[in-house]
Amino acid sequence: MSPSEPAAGPTVKLGVSAPLSGRGAVLGREMAQAVRLAVEEAGASGLRVELVERDDRGEEQAGLAVARGFADDPAVLAVIGPYNSNVALPAAPLYSGARLALVGPIVSNPALTESGWDTMFRFTARDDDTAMAIADHLARALGKRRAVLVATATAYGRSMTGRFDGAFAAAGGVVLARHEVAEGETRFDALADALPADTDVVFYGGTYEGAPLLSALRRRGRPQLFAAGDGCWDRPNFLDPAGAAAEAGEGVLILSACPQPGEVPGAREMVARYERRFGPVLNYAVNAYDAAALTLAALNDAAAVATPDRDAVLAALRRAEWRGIAYPDPVRWDAKGDNRAAATALHVVRDGRFVQVALVRKT
């Protein structure tokens, strides 16, 4: 637990649900650390906020246990997270039943805001929006027309490739083959060898399997452009293990559900503060910080007129218009709880780092 230190005022709790151990711990810890930084920097306000970080391990059952714990603690007035859609989807009904605001900095599965849970606020772009952005760019800007799709068998992997499938067809493309691979799979030579000769792009939806898939494609002499969802906008789990393969052949095109840090005023400075405290930013620290800062503002807004409770925080979040550092436009929620300002960035890899080449805005 990490409290902010204002001079006076009531104490409330802000929860964080993230994978703090296990396979996704590096990125889960980054999310929690960014939220911690936002809480500490907001500590001069009149509301005392106690940060409660809980480890959901990126797993459904652990995420449900975290959700129950937060729901049962009346002092918890909002929760940031989870990091993973497979954790958020089963947990969201529990948060809704407890009237507990769930602000997702990163979770992208469209079902989270299509299921009627009015306590869900998605800060990032949805899979259907990001899939449309990258599909349009591939087909219209790059002239790619024949795709092979590969999905990791997870909620995120299936959602990302499924949405891309429809968006690519709408943009004039044709899907030649569809493959689904198990989590943890590392052997992709047979898949690479089976690639149709007229394939001009391989689209991957997933996370950890992206690097070994790309490496196999290049090793087996497949130079086609490798495109992927934001599960691969990730240095430790994609860029570093892929190594030279990321710049071989036609290279890669990787989307992210927020601009590269530095594109929006204030983001570069926040990254510098984060890195002085915690080390290098890996992917969505800016989103996590900004989502937390917005939530803290809503907590203070609710406390300004009465003793804050969950319903007051929900009302404050719904009316929020937040000029933050993650997106160029002010954050405003639509009726479903999606962020109207959410944007999709597209990146290539040059000299061993991601370089933004396009930004697709919703507003």
From TrEMBL:
Q: Name one Pfam family in it.
A: Peripla_BP_6
From the broadest rank down, the organism's phylogenetic lineage runs:
Bacteria, Pseudomonadati, Pseudomonadota, Alphaproteobacteria, Rhodospirillales
User: CDD domains given for it?
Assistant: PBP1_ABC_LIVBP-like
Which family does the UniProt entry place this protein in?
Belongs to the leucine-binding protein family.
Name the chain's protein: Leucine-binding protein domain-containing protein
* UniProt keyword Signal present: yes
Supply the alphabetized keyword list: Signal
Show the InterPro entries listed in the entry: Leu-bd, Peripla_BP_I
All copies of the Leucine-binding protein domain together span: 11-350
